Amino acid sequence: MRDKLFFDDWKEFTLQKPDEVILNHLENIKNKTTLTGSLKYRNLKEVNKVFALFLTHNYGSIIYELCNFLKYLSHNNLPFYNIMVMESNDLLKKIKKINFINSQEISNKFTLKLESYNFDISYSRISNLIIIIEFLEEILGLEEILLLDKSVGNVRTQKELQEISNNISKKVYSYLKNLLPTSHLQSLSLAIGNFIIKKNKDVNHKIVSEDISDDFIFDFWVAFSLGEKDLLIKTFNLASDLCLSYKKSIELVEKYNFSSRYHIDEEYSLNMISKDTLNEFLEQITSSDEHMFSKSFNKLCVWQSDKINILKKKELSEIEVFSKYDDLSMKLPLTILRVCSFGNIQNKIIENQRRKKSDLNNFFHSYFDTSIYYDQRQIIQNIINNNSFICEILFYKLWSFESPKVIDIIRNYLNKDELILFENFINQNKEKLDFEPILDDIDLFRELTKKRMNYTPDEYREEKLANLNEEFKVFIDSSKFQSDFKSFLNFISKSKKSTMSFRRSGFDFNLNSEENIKTMTEIYNTLSIIKEFLFKFINCLNLNVNDLKSKFNEDKILFFEHFKLLYSKEGV
User: Fold this and answer.
1) CB 184 within 8 A of CB 173
2) What b/e sequence results for 533-572 when a residue is b if at least 16 CB atoms lie within 10 Å of its CB, and e otherwise?
3) Which secondary-structure segment (H or E) carries 279?
4) Which own/partner contact pairs does 220-223 have at CB distance under 8 Å and 24+ positions apart?
5) Which of 218, 241, 298, 411 is in the most buried spot, having the most CB atoms within 10 Å?
6) What is the C-alpha to C-alpha distance for residues 528 and 524, in angstroms, rounded to an integer?
7) Is the pLDDT of residue 310 over 80?
8) Are 379 and 316 in contact (CB under 8 A)?
9) How far is C-alpha 95 from the geometric centre of its chain's CA atoms?
10) Residue 358 gets which letter from DSSP?
11) Which position has the higher pLDDT, 291 or 464?
12) What pLDDT band is residue 395 in, cutting at 50, 70 and 90?
C-alpha cells in the first residue's frame, strides 16, 4: 500500500507538492519483475535514491553517465535488450569479463574510450544505471529509449554524446515541469526548512506552523539577502511571500493530515473522515481563490477594469497585500505592516539606484520623524469607513427599490431593541414564506414541482421575500411601531441625504431595474466582506503591537542598517 503523504517529510516540497502521477511511476518500477517472475529490485533503497534525483531535477549528470554506459555497451556488442531483461549481477559479470579481456587487469571500473575522450564508470554504478533506464522508460516511453540506444550507438565524438544527453534531459524536464515544482522553488523551500532547523538548534525538530513568525521572516531575509549566498533573496517582500506560503502549506498539512490522525488502512480512511471535513479539505486544495477576501478583492478589480469604480485605485493597491495572504494576515499582522512599509521603502531605494540617486543617508533621514505603521493603520481604517459609507447608501437604495434581498441585511442597521422587534416580526410571518428558508435549490425545486408551481427556486424565493419586505415596511410605518424604529428611520433619512450627493461611475444608483439591483446587491456583499476582514485585521494588529510609533522606530533601525549593507558601497 502506498503512503498518501509520501512527500510530506520533504522540506523541498513544502511550498508545492508533486503531482500524484509521479508516485505512479515509482510504484510501477518497484513492482517490475524478472523473466522468472520475482521482483527485479529487492533493494528499494537504490530505487528511491534514483527517484530522488528526478524529483529534485538533478538528473542531468546521471543521464550523461547513462549515455556513456550505453555507448560502452554498443562498443562491446552487448545488446540493449540484455539490459532490460537481465539482472544487474549477471550484467555486471559480463562487463567484468569483457573489461578483463580488453585491459588484462583487474579493476573496480570500466572505461569508455572515444577518440581522445575517456569516461570511467564504476562497477557499483551499474545497478543504478539500469534503474535510471527504467525511470526514463516510465517518463518518456519505450520507443524513446530504443531511439536513445540507437542514437548513442552511432555517435563518434564526445560532443555528439553530450548533445544526445542534453536532448534527453530537456525531454525529461518538459514532462516533469508540470508535475514537479521547479528546482529553484525546491531550493527555496529547502532553505526555509533548513533555516527553521538551524534556528531551533535541533536536527530532529518537527517543523510546525508556529516556526514561521514575524521575527523568523525578518531573520530569514537578512540571512539570504546578501550576495555571497548561493541562494539570493534580496527583497523583504519576496522573503515574506515565500515564508508565508510555506506557513500556509504547513497549516494545510497539519489540519488535514488524515493518515497520521487515524492510522488506518488507506482504503478505509475516507469512511472515518467526516463529510464536512473532507469537503473543506477538497475546497482548500482545489480552489485557486479559496478565501472570501481574495474572491471579493478580485471582484473589485474586475469591476474596476470594467469601469465600475467602487473603491479608488489607490485603495485597492493598499489592500492588495491581504488578497495574497488572507487569514495569515491575522496571525502575522506585523509582517503585513513591514511588507507595506519597508517593502515599499526598499522598492524606492532600488528605483533611486536605477536613476543614480542613491544618497542613502539623505533618503533615510527623510523618515526621521514619521510613523508609517500608524499611518498604514489609519489608511486601512479609512477604507473601512469608506466601505461602511458606501454600504449604507447601497442599503438605502435597495430599501427604496424594495429589493427582496434587503430583508437579509436589514439587521446590520437596527439597534438592539429594534432587532428584537424585527426577529419577532419574522417569526410571526414565517408561515407566509410557505417554504423553509434553509432549503437548497434542488429541494425547493422538488417542493415546487409537487405543488405544480411554475417557478424557479430563485423566482419563488424573491417573490416571497418581496412580500415579506413589503409587510415589514407597513409594520414599521404603522403608528403603533413607528416610535420603536425611530433610530432605523433616522438612519434611512440620513442615508437618503447622502445618496443625493453620492456618485460612482459605471452603474446607476438611481436606476430601479432588476439588473441594477442585482449589481448593487453583489457590490454590497463584496464590500461587507472586505470591511469585516479589514476590521478584524485592525483588531489583531492592536492586540499584537501596543505602540505603533515605537515599533516603527525600532524596526526602522533594523531595516535601515540592513538596507545599508545591501545598497551602500561603503557598508555600515
Assistant:
1) no
2) bbeebbebbeeebeebeebbbebbeebbebbeebbeeeee
3) helix 275-286
4) 220/192, 220/195, 221/562, 222/562, 223/195
5) 218
6) 6
7) yes
8) no
9) 50
10) -
11) 291
12) very high
Which three three-digit cell numbers place residue 180?
Answer: 514537479
Q: Under DSSP, is residue 553 helix (H, G, I), strand (E, B) or coil?
A: helix
Amino acid letter, 499? T
CA atoms within 13 Å, Cβ hemisphere of 479:
0
d(CA 60, CA 237): 33
Give the separation between CA 92 and CA 328, rounded to whole angstroms.
56
Cβ atoms of residues 446 and 456 within 8 Å: no
**pLDDT tens-digit profile of 473-498?**
777 766 566 688 889 889 999 999 99
Phi, psi of 571 (to 5 degrees): 75, -160
Give the separation between CA 488 and CA 16, rounded to whole angstroms. 51
Q: How far apart are the first and last CA of the chain?
A: 58
The total of other beta-carbon atoms located within 10 Å of residue 95's CB is 19
* 24 burial level (CB within 10 Å; 0-12, 13-18, 19+): exposed
pLDDT at 557 over 90: yes
